[in-house]
Design brief:
This protein has about 110 residues and is an alpha+beta fold. Helix content is about 40%, strand content about 15%.
């Protein structure tokens, strides 16, 4: 189980929608999960994607101890071309489908508060 899920249980939170901006412990636990993922997979085997007006592709080496809202999705490097295809195919035409595709490929979805 992840540090984040453990932290939710420890604080009696059943839904991430119940988190508030005062729940920094959630971000800390999420950061622990990301660092653990980097340790297991290696920084060369993952990359992140930050959504915004322009997408920011983040190499794995820059994900360690990432700041709140610094990354939205983390993917296996092997899925780079599939993610790139989803970006080009759906980002500007069907944003809901775009987010769904990203979630399907991601190995970690970030839910910062």
């Amino acid at each position: 189980m992840s540090h984040w899920f453990d932290a939710l249980k420890e604080h009696g939170i059943r839904s991430p929608f119940d988190l508030t901006e005062f729940d920094q412990w959630s971000n800390d636990a999420q950061r622990e999960d990301i660092n653990e993922l980097l340790k297991k997979r290696g920084t060369k085997n993952v990359f992140g994607l930050k959504l915004g007006a322009t997408l920011e592709w983040i190499p794995g080496r820059k994900l360690r101890d990432v700041c709140n809202f610094g990354v939205d999705y983390i993917f296996a490097e092997d899925d780079y071309h599939d993610v790139e295809l989803a970006v080009h195919k759906f980002k500007d035409t069907d944003y809901n489908r775009f987010l769904s595709e990203l979630s399907n490929f991601s190995i970690y979805d970030c839910l910062w508060v």
